[in-house]
């Protein structure tokens, strides 16, 4: 199905004159959502985290709109910037973000990548799953607790909005003595020492929603600096750096500080057994915390970030500068790429090779579910696919996610394309049309090529997912992100034969004992890579109810490649009534008059 969309980026400026009265549909009573006792909402939440002090409520206003950046490039910005403002809070603080959508004719939501949303599943930011999308001119107030420490980030849920610039860092600190690896470093200054890496494109992707051609990124960028980000260090001291791959394409990043080693201490916010390495490889959506010690000759060193996959050939650099070093000539000469950057594979470590800092509780009798991931056997045409959020509440004004056309053959899970539910799955499950649902494992009962894939899981019952990148029709690596839960990554299997995989072969390998699992201390991650023609096996125990997406963040520009993991939960009617319902957003054309 095709829809005529006029990209009204000029009108964006018209609507910006302040005349439009924006109506917000905030939950009327905060205490329904969260028990927060703090008053000090407007003190900066970026502070040293201490014991025995009350958590704070940390408020942010995000206005998202198309803007021209300093380099005259269009981008979707948050308060005029991309990446958006970093959020730095302490453990147990309450984060409140008012997101105002000023992107004409488009609907957005914001996802808080890695945040568990314990008790607030409706703040997870997935349109038509955990909330109604925020239509143009509307506001949604996100409020959730920073319930575990670590390195996170936020981004628009749609891959296109995210790629156009809607993302930023989110760091949750805790008192230093609680940090398991505090002895390995001297400084943990997350505001200065976070490198969040994104891509830039020659055009605004969301301005050409119907154009199915693929536009490759033309640069990768660290933080907001078009120039080099600078990390100043004092000789002899150890520094904790937080590395975030905030790219929504299949672009692994290899990060290396010349002539220094890095000690990895955490991945996806969870501590690991420290490993020292020359370089780290971080997949899209992954984070790694590393310690770099200023133990070399005083001077200036390049930190190289090089793209792989779809970002092959793109590099960017930051600077590691010892205090007192005059780096003028370094800036003039630019990075020396040839001599210093050669790396052997074995000098690079990935998140899935790490082991968690503590042994994990073992799980017996876990039910194993095979998910077949591949490009479709038959070419899928635009006409076969519905790109709308098919809301029943406002049938005359369909909500649009940021895609109206297939840019490629969308990757399928168990042979199905993703369909947005007609009512928010979490909030109004009884309103979701049953014939649009495919139950994982029983897909054959639904003849539609596009459906809402749902895996029904039970509270506190462990699930094992075998993510199988079968590779019959692609040679790609895919990266999946789990909302709500950390996954124990018990196996990453690269296929030595490099031949396409099938469920039967997997079962045969299981019977032959070829698939061993690390159930003692697997890394616990929210983002995992699934190798080409290989397997990644993850386990998780649903500890809180909700409708949680497991999605490929790097498979498609057009529609999500996802399943919903549904864990029963009853949300009080009071809460549901206080959240915006899909029909209650004001349509954009009213605002413009
Ligand atoms: C909010 O809800 C709490 C608990 O339900 C109640 O005690 C309080 O009076 C409410 N506040 C307002 C302003 O309605
Ligand atoms: C805190 O915020 C309130 C309302 O937004 C404002 O009136 C007050 O002046 C602020 N206080 C400080 C110390 O900034
Ligand atoms: C740093 O080096 C540049 C060129 O090498 C020189 O012009 C400049 O004066 C130096 N700055 C300081 C503060 O020494
Ligand atoms: C994948 O790679 C193999 C071997 O290099 C090649 O024969 C095959 O055509 C590729 N498949 C796709 C879909 O690109």
From TrEMBL:
Residues 72-176, 215-323, 438-552 form the Plastocyanin-like domain. One of its GO terms (molecular function) is copper ion binding. Pfam families: Cu-oxidase (PF00394), Cu-oxidase_2 (PF07731), Cu-oxidase_3 (PF07732). One of its GO terms (cellular component) is plasma membrane. Keywords: Copper, Metal-binding, Oxidoreductase, Signal. It comes from the Eukaryota. Residues 1-20 form the signal peptide. One of its GO terms (biological process) is iron ion transport. PANTHER family: FI03373P-RELATED, MULTI-COPPER OXIDASE. Belongs to the multicopper oxidase family. This is Laccase. It comes from Euphydryas editha.
């Amino acid at each position: 199905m095709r829809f005529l969309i006029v990209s009204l980026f000029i009108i964006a400026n018209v609507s910006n004159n302040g005349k439009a009265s924006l109506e917000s549909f905030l939950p009327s009573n905060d205490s329904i959502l969260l028990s927060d006792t703090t008053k000090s909402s407007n003190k900066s939440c970026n502070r040293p985290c201490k014991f025995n002090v009350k958590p704070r409520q940390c408020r942010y206003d995000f206005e998202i709109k198309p803007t021209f950046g300093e380099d005259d490039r269009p981008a979707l910005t948050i308060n005029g910037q991309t990446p958006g403002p970093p959020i730095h809070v302490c453990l147990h603080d309450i984060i409140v973000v008012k997101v105002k959508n000023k992107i004409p004719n488009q609907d957005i939501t914001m996802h808080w990548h890695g945040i568990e949303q314990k008790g607030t599943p409706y703040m997870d930011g997935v349109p038509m799953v955990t909330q109604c999308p925020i239509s143009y001119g509307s506001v949604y107030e996100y409020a959730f607790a920073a319930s575990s420490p670590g390195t996170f980030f936020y981004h628009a849920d749609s891959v296109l909005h995210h790629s156009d610039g809607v993302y930023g860092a989110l760091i949750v600190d805790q008192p230093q003595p609680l940090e398991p690896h505090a002895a390995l470093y001297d400084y943990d200054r997350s505001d200065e020492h976070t490198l969040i890496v994104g891509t830039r494109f020659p055009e605004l992707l969301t301005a050409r929603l119907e154009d199915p051609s693929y536009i490759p990124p033309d640069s990768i960028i660290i933080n907001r600096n078009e120039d080099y980000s600078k990390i100043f260090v004092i000789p002899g001291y150890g520094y904790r750096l937080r590395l975030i791959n905030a790219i929504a394409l299949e672009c692994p990043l290899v990060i290396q500080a010349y002539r220094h080693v890095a000690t990895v201490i955490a991945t996806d916010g969870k501590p690991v057994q420290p490993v020292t390495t020359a370089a780290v490889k971080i997949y899209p959506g992954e984070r790694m915390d590393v310690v770099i010690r200023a133990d070399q000759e005083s001077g200036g060193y390049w930190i190289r970030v090089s793209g792989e996959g779809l970002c092959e050939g793109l590099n960017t650099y930051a600077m590691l500068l010892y205090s007192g070093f005059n780096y003028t000539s370094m800036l003039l000469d630019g990075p020396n790429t040839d001599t210093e950057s050669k790396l052997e594979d074995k000098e690079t470590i990935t998140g899935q090779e790490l082991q968690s800092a503590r042994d994990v509780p073992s799980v017996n009798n876990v039910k194993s579910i095979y998910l077949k991931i591949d490009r479709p056997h038959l070419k899928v045409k635009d006409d076969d696919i519905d790109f709308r959020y098919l809301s029943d509440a406002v049938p005359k004004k369909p909500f649009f996610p940021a895609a109206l056309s297939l840019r490629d053959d969308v990757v399928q899970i168990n042979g199905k394309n993703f369909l947005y539910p007609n009512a928010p799955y979490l909030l109004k499950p009884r309103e979701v049309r049953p014939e649009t649902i495919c139950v994982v494992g029983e897909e054959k009962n639904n003849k539609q090529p596009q459906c809402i894939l749902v895996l029904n899981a039970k509270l506190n019952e462990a699930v094992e997912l075998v993510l199988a990148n079968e590779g019959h029709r692609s040679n790609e690596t895919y990266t999946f992100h789990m909302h709500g839960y950390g996954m124990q990554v018990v196996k990453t299997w690269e296929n030595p034969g490099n031949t396409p995989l099938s469920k039967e072969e997997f079962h045969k390998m299981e019977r032959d004992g070829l698939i061993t699992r690390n159930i003692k201390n697997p890394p616990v991650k929210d983002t995992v890579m699934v190798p080409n023609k290989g397997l990644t096996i993850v386990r998780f125990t649903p500890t809180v109810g909700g409708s949680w997406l497991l999605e490929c963040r790097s498979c498609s520009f057009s529609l999500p490649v996802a399943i919903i993991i549904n864990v029963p939960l009853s949300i009080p009617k009071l809460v549901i009534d206080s959240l915006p319902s899909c029909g209650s957003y004001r349509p954009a054309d009213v605002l413009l008059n």
